[in-house]
Amino acid sequence: MSSQDNWNNPDMYYQQSQPGPGAGNGYGGSNANYGAASYNSNAAYSNAAYGANPQYAAGMPVPGYGYQPPPPTNTLAIIALVASIFGVVTSIFVGGIAGIVMGHIARKQIKQRGERGDGMATAALWVGYIGTALWILFWIVYVGIFVLIFGATMIGAGSVN
User: Fold this and answer.
1) Where are the domains of the chain?
2) Where does the chain have alpha helices with state H?
């Protein structure tokens, strides 16, 4: 009997034949093939006493058991997050504004329909608001620097009296 068979049969120790009284200590002589005759690899897994369950035999699951599939993820929340990230990464802050609008619509749909994706919609709102604010601030500073440079060159040229 190999060690692999021991793992496959949890009732192996109960199926072995026990030596009779006065048969020796089990280390030789008459007990050399201890338990080998009574071992059956399929005995522990036989269902003959219980019979087949007709629901499992037909391949049908038992009603009331199993996993309920999760609700779908709101597609608009995904699109809002992508648009908000696009607005932050590029200088087209209109993508961030679109992400903000779609994020609000997605949160409303999620509450009404019971879908997943509220975290994505919230992230789209955060990324959209912060990204749009940063890009607007960047453009104000950028244009302001050029106005100051242009004003300084005009004053330096002496054309302003």
Assistant:
1) 3-57, 75-157
2) 3-8, 12-15, 54-57, 75-89, 94-113, 118-157
